[in-house]
Design the sequence.
């Protein structure tokens, strides 16, 4: 008996150790970036264009570029993703087609990000002749985050109790009226969570925008959706590998801005989800 | 009037429902459209098993074996690190950790999943790479090992969260039954819960590995990018993904090099397709 108790203690200790091995480095990464990045952050860094071959000045065009890209991606992906989720949760029957759609979603979420970049290059940049532009980049990122939005929205829609729908239908509402006025409003927090997670993913990805939009150095703001743009993740890649002798402060500062942006969005999503679960009446 | 409107709305919903199938097919078609052209100049066998990747020499030598081995080496390294740690962490979170700590740990794992790969690559460059260099007394710390360690971190959130789900969905009666027979908590975990959750855990591992093979930026930044067949884990390697990302910018649209990079894209697409379909089968097995 004592032996089994001891082996349990040893086993649990190793489980705990494994957990620490994951959590401690994550904490360290965040702390290092904050500690070394904060001194670089000031108003000029956030609002100025890069100067002296990106060794000084700010990162404003990259912030704006990322903003446009993320906005474009969500404008494209949210309507399609939401309607697809409605189809899967409200209309689809348990058929072969349904099964294939789910498999396609699983596959879309598994396609390597650089393959999305290739696809965007072949379809949007070369075939449709959009060139390397915000439009091409946004569409590529939009397709990439589609599975995230579909999956989370579908979960949100499916978590609305069946009885809500039955009551609405029994009062004479049509199927679409029921979805529009009963199911959707109750699923909004979940859909919002998915959308924000998608935004965060789109903001942080580099590989899909490498060949579809990203400009190495572009010290002005994009004027239309057919312009190239700088983007934060690509800018971080460039100044940490392609440009020699960049002040470490600038690199950490850029990493901090990108990380804060992405983590902030994730935090918002987590908070929305948490509050929603607490308030949920069913 | 209302009927007509609803008719169109429902058709629109159906079209969007089919959108994901449409995009998967579209991705494959466009990769194939650009990539298959490479086989005019090099046979599929020589493309996959060719030992030399010199895309801009004259004539270009387009063998991706060094790149495949580079990807494989980094992936195996990452799997060896991330599978045991990831599963152990999943067990800790789902079975051992007190409720409050559980929530914090889950948030921490989500945090790790959210960190952009370029940020992890950057951190790897400034911390991990110098460590590897000085510990092993190497001329450069940009090695397959550094890549494996960094990638292990990117695979862990996937492994932990899916494995944790699998453990959580084991019926409570299994556990109660084992306790009633006098098993300790650890015996229950080891002999009952883990075997019962095994197909979900296998899926978790596969999806984690899928994430590793497809990862691009961090790998490109810290593995050193030498397109030669690796002799050990302490030398620079170049992966399939990094090759595309690093070289597409210079490849001329319509050149053999350009086609070859798309053909690598096809290889990656097929690998991820196989992994995801198989993992999905394992996940469904659990539900039946």
Sequence:
């Amino acid at each position: 008996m004592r032996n089994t108790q001891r082996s349990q203690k040893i086993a649990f200790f190793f489980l705990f150790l494994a957990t620490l091995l994951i959590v401690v480095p994550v904490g360290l990464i965040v702390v290092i970036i904050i500690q070394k990045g904060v001194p670089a952050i000031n108003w000029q860094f956030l609002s100025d264009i890069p100067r002296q071959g990106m060794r000084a000045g700010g990162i404003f065009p990259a912030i704006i570029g990322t903003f446009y890209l993320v906005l474009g991606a969500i404008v494209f992906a949210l309507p399609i993703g939401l309607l697809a989720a409605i189809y899967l949760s409200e209309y689809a029957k348990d058929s072969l087609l349904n099964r294939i759609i789910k498999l396609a979603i699983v596959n879309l979420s598994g396609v390597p990000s650089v393959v999305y970049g290739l696809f965007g290059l072949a379809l949007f940049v070369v075939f449709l002749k959009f060139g390397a532009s915000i439009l091409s980049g946004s569409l590529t990122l939009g397709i990439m985050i589609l599975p995230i939005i579909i999956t989370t929205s579908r979960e949100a829609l499916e978590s609305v109790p069946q009885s809500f729908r039955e009551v609405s239908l029994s009062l004479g509402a049509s199927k679409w009226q029921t979805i529009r006025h009963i199911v959707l409003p109750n699923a909004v927090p979940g859909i919002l969570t998915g959308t924000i997670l998608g935004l965060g993913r789109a903001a942080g990805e580099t590989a899909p925008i490498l060949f579809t939009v990203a400009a190495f150095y572009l010290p002005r703001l994009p004027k239309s959706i057919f312009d190239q743009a700088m983007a934060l993740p690509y800018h971080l890649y460039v100044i940490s590998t392609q440009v020699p002798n960049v002040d470490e402060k600038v690199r950490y500062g850029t990493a901090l801005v990108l990380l804060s942006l992405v983590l902030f969005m994730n935090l918002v999503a987590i908070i929305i989800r948490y509050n929603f679960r607490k308030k949920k009446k069913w | 009037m209302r009927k007509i409107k609803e008719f169109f709305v429902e058709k629109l919903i159906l079209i969007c429902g089919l959108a994901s199938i449409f995009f998967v097919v579209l991705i494959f078609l466009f990769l194939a459209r650009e990539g298959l052209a490479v086989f005019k100049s090099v046979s599929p066998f020589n493309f996959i098993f060719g030992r030399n990747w010199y895309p801009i020499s004259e004539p270009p030598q387009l063998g991706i074996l060094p790149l495949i081995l580079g990807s494989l080496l980094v992936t195996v390294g990452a799997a060896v690190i991330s599978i045991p740690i990831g599963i152990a962490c999943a067990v800790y979170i789902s079975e051992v950790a007190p409720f409050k700590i559980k929530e914090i740990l889950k948030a921490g794992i989500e945090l790790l999943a959210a960190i952009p790969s370029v940020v992890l690559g950057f951190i790897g460059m400034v911390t991990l790479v110098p460590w590897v260099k000085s510990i092993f007394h190497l001329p450069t710390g940009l090695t397959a090992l550094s890549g494996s360690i960094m990638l292990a971190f990117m695979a862990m959130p996937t492994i932990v969260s899916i494995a944790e789900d699998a453990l959580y969905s084991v019926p409570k009666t299994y556990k109660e039954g084992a306790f009633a027979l006098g098993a300790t908590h650890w015996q229950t975990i080891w002999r009952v819960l883990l075997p019962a959750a095994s197909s979900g855990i296998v899926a978790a591992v596969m999806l984690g590995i899928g994430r590793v093979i497809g990862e691009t930026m961090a790998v490109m930044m810290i593995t050193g990018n030498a397109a030669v067949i690796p002799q050990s884990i302490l030398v620079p390697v170049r992966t399939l993904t990094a090759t595309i990302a690093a070289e597409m910018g210079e490849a001329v649209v319509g050149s053999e090099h350009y086609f070859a990079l798309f053909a690598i894209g096809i290889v990656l697409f097929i690998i991820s397709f196989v992994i995801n379909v198989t993992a999905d089968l394992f996940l469904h097995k659990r539900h039946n």
